[in-house]
Amino acid sequence: MSDIATHVILLLALAAFVAGFVDSIAGGGGLIAVPALLLAGFSPAETLGTNKLQGMFGTGSAALHYASKGQVKVKKQLPWAVLAFFACAAGALIATKIPGTALRIALPFVLIAIALYFAFKPNLTDVDRAERISPKAFGLIVMPLIGLYDGIFGPGMGSFLMLAFISLAGYGVLKATAHTKFINFATNLGGLAAFAAVGMVSWKVGLVMGVAQFAGARLGSGLAMKNGARLIKPLLVVICIAVAGRLLIDPANPLRIMLGV
Hints:
Structural class: mainly alpha
Order of helices and strands: HHHHHHHHHHH
Number of strands: 0
Shape: globular
Largest sheet: none
């Protein structure tokens, strides 16, 4: 940390606080934290590893808060969290070997579709609905897929998992948000383990940001439980559109390169 200016560290902590607040409600915290780390001069790989470290504090804070209020049954979800942990660790290792071109091209449009779903789907409330698949099938299918995706690429993971909890598991919006944070904590931990194994984590900066993330997530999860779907739905739509826009305007986006724009 000694080679990073104090004001830069403070700005990174502020970015982490905002990221934790937003992510605890609707996901998308990486949209704030990752660009902040890149602007601070970290390499792309170290940015991803450090983001996993600081993000773990935010998702952990939110998960604890939701669980303490009865929104998550930890023992029931623990096996699926462990599965997501190992899937994300594997995904992070795979990410060092394969290009993510197809994901980068498709993801913005998938996120826009998710935003439209949450914006116009009627009766999306905090009330649970009928399950479309059994809890066991949901865990065995969704958790490995979401963990791999989070390790290989990551943006929009929270939106995808919330959509799965709502549309397949039948959860209400608030319950889906709470469970998403619990699983996201496990995937952050798995990704961190993989990046740490190859020396791609700035521990000191990540821990400072992590403290700020924890505080922001605590505040955000409290507001989410107070306001439920009234707050979560519109913020989720905004976050999906923002992440999609951020990916589309990125000069390194493969689609822009293909089109020559």
